[in-house]
Design a protein that fits this description.
Layout (H helix, E strand, L loop, with lengths): L2 H12 L2 E9 L2 E9 L2 E5 L10 H4 L5 E5 L3 H10 L3 E9 L2 E7 L5 E6 L6
Parallel strand pairs: 4-7
Antiparallel strand pairs: 1-2, 2-3, 5-6, 6-7
Helix pairs in contact: 1-3
Length: 118
C-alpha cells in the first residue's frame, strides 16, 4: 500500500481532521493536504528522486510539532490507530505533551498548551 494512502486512512480513524487535497502522480500520492485541528500538513508518497521517508533513511532528525485542543483524547485515538508511543503524555511547563511515531518513521509531538487545557 502506498505510504500516503495508508497515512491518510490512519488519520481518518485517529484524529479529527479533513483531507483538503489529494493529487495522484505516477500511480502514487504526489501531494496531499490534511488539516489537524487547524494545522495544515502536506505530505506525499516517497519518490526517491525527490524525497525519502525516515524508514528509508534509517531515522529522522525532524520532529513535527502540532498543538491540539485535548492531547489526552488525541493520544488515545492515535494509539488505537496503531502509532508507536515514544513518550507517553506528561505535563511540562509549556503544556501537556506526548511524542508518537507514525508507521513510516515520522516523529510527531502533540501538545495542549497550558492556557488551552480544559
Amino acid at each position: 500500500m502506498m505510504q500516503s494512502v495508508h497515512w491518510l486512512s490512519m488519520q481518518r480513524r485517529s484524529v479529527e481532521k479533513k483531507v483538503s487535497q489529494r493529487t495522484p502522480w505516477e500511480g502514487k500520492i504526489g501531494h496531499a493536504e490534511i488539516e489537524i485541528e487547524g494545522a495544515q500538513v502536506m505530505l506525499a508518497d516517497e519518490f526517491p528522486a525527490f524525497n525519502k521517508s525516515p524508514r528509508t533513511l534509517g531515522g529522522t532528525p525532524v520532529i513535527i510539532h502540532v498543538d491540539v485542543k485535548d492531547v489526552d483524547s488525541f493520544f488515545n485515538r492515535a494509539v488505537a490507530a496503531g502509532v508507536t508511543v515514544l513518550q507517553p503524555i506528561k505535563d511540562e511547563p509549556y503544556g501537556r505533551i506526548c511524542k508518537l511515531q507514525d508507521p513510516f518513521g515520522h516523529v510527531w509531538r502533540f501538545n495542549t498548551p497550558p492556557n488551552q487545557r480544559y
